[in-house]
Design brief:
Length: 323
């Protein structure tokens, strides 16, 4: 939105407010999206969702309410997509496994995820982060601290945490599991027929803070995390010395942990020779038959991947650079 002329505004006397409002309206009228015609069915759908008054709702529930009032449900998913694109709800219709739920309150979803991905609230006398324990059954309390250390959680424990905090419906738990897996917040694996599913959660137990050592090297007003791409060519050290003031950027928060989840998912797709992943703060080790992979976050600028196959090491550097 661009308004060519400046408008001095006085909030006490109201001077300039009418002129500014008129200029904004005229500018908006010229925008292409203002010409879009919105069907009445999409508008009334939003009214129905607000009247239901739930934090989330299954599509079958929406259909039942609409059919009761003889409202056409054929365009329901299209209407939910329309509302989601405008930030009125959250609906993930492009992913079949989670397309059966519409979320009215994003905080409901965030709370469910932060029950097992929690930032530390304080530190112990040795400087180790302390993560507050969510409500859970007595039998799982002893497993909470080990989970914060190894980032591996059994499916039964995860479901118990959700059930103990208001997410007890099996359909809801399946939705949350699928959502966290699709967004690579966690990756599930099983190490044998009949064994319980375990989820690797790389983000668990860590502090989401940047490496200040490297951030002090650059002007943060010009170099930011999201505006970057990953370069896998060239030598990192020489590039830093030569181009650090122009071409280096910071990786987005959580990128390293998502990359670890992707690797775990891909390796666990093989049906033999796979061992449980070892997760540490800023590092992970994976193995498949005679192949061993070590991935480490060297800094906010670089991730190194070491691959050993038949005792032959190879190293790959992923360096963040400005777009």
């Amino acid at each position: 939105l661009e308004i060519s002329s400046p408008f001095p505004v006085d909030s006490k006397t109201g001077l300039g407010i009418y002129e500014l409002k008129s200029a904004i309206e005229k500018t908006l009228e010229k925008q292409e999206y203002m010409k879009e015609q919105v069907s009445y069915s999409k508008v009334i759908l939003h009214s129905y969702l607000e009247d239901i008054g739930k934090e989330y709702i299954f599509l079958d529930e929406i259909k039942a309410v609409l059919e009761k009032d003889n409202v056409d449900t054929d365009l329901l998913k299209d209407g939910l997509k329309f509302l989601s694109e405008r930030g009125l709800i959250n609906y993930f219709g492009e992913f079949p496994t989670i397309s059966n739920v519409a979320i009215m309150n994003p905080g409901w979803l965030v709370k469910a995820l932060t029950l097992f991905i929690r930032e530390p609230e304080e530190k112990d006398r040795f400087g180790n982060p302390l993560h507050s324990r969510p409500e859970m059954s007595q039998k799982f309390i002893k497993d909470w601290e080990p989970f914060q250390q190894n980032r591996l959680i059994k499916e039964s424990m995860l479901k118990d945490i959700w059930s103990s905090n208001g997410y007890e419906e099996p359909e809801v738990q399946q939705f949350l599991t699928d959502f966290a897996s699709l967004t690579y917040l966690m990756s599930g694996f099983s190490l044998g027929v009949g064994s319980e599913v375990t989820f690797a959660v790389p983000n668990a137990g860590i502090e989401l803070k940047a490496d200040q050592q490297y951030r002090q090297m650059f002007d943060e007003r010009e170099i930011t995390g999201p505006k970057c791409y990953l370069d896998m060519s060239g030598d990192f050290d020489s590039e830093v010395m030569k181009y650090q003031d122009k071409f280096l950027a910071f990786m987005p928060f959580g990128f390293f942990e998502r990359l670890v989840s992707i690797l775990i998912k891909e390796m666990m797709s093989f049906d033999r020779g796979v061992s449980a992943p070892v997760l540490m703060n800023g590092a992970a080790a994976l193995s498949l038959d005679s192949v061993a992979i070590g991935i480490k976050k060297e800094s906010d600028l670089r991730i190194s991947v070491q691959i050993e196959n038949d005792s032959t090491p190879d190293e790959l550097n992923l360096v963040a650079r400005t777009v």
